[in-house]
Amino acid sequence: MATRMFEGKHHATLYQKYRFAPPDELKTLILDYLDKKKGPPHLLAVDLGCGTGQNTRLMAPLFKEMVGIDVSESQVEEARAVPGFPNITYRVGTAEKLPFPDGSVDVILAASAAHWFHTENFVKEAGRVLKPLGCLALMGFGKNMEYHYGNCEGRLTDIFNEFTDALLPYTSKQVAIADSALQEVLDAIPFPEKERVDNLPVTYKVPVQNAVGFFESFSMFQAYERADPTAARALLETTQRRYCPPAPCRCPLIALGTPLFKSLYTLPVKGFRTSLVYIEIHAV
Prior knowledge:
This protein is of the alpha/beta class. Helix content is 38%, strand content 26%. Strands 1, 2, 3, 4, 5, 6, 7, 8 and 9 form a nine-stranded mixed sheet that branches. Helix 6 (153-166) packs antiparallel against helix 11 (229-243), helix 9 runs antiparallel to helix 11 (229-243) and helix 10 (219-227) crosses helix 11 (229-243). The two termini are 35 Å apart.
């Protein structure tokens, strides 16, 4: 079954407030692939591990109906609180047991989520519900984020790397799978051809407070905070102070660059239901 890591209300609030939405370029990439392999109409998309709905909302305008599914009631509650998307329905559920008939879904999406699924069961269920020539799109952040502000860019990236190094003892197997660009998941997918698109570049300009909130949302930090709340809080506060020293580097706004998504496509053959996209986004 899916790993349950994001159940708490506070963690869901961090996701809604500080997690970055995928770039608009992602919509074009996936839509072009769907048009090429399946063609319109594009009726139903399902966003698995949807969290608080950043990717769900990005992709919703491309489809008649969008369904976001997450195992966490708190995450789904946050997603439902965002108005203005009448074609989105959110449900609590898992990626391994989907509430759709065979061959009924145009595209299955999973943004920074597939590493939490039970791979074998997820892949089997995706193959069941996807239409012939439908698409499976898996996305995730790259590891090599860079932080820039004035002449402080190398220093800011070093601070981030030191922060993540401190979390290594709390890094789960699932995060290691994500850091490998989902290689274990991709190897398990039986579709006949796969094409990877690396390093879709993205830059976000955010206040330091938002960058630190993003760090706090990491599953590794949450695990550290459960194990040693005092030490975890001290690490977070120290990191924020280091990003905003008195002089000479004041950092009210920093540019975060990350390899954001890698893309992988499988070309369907007769009798196969699915094509695959894996996209890794890199902020640069």
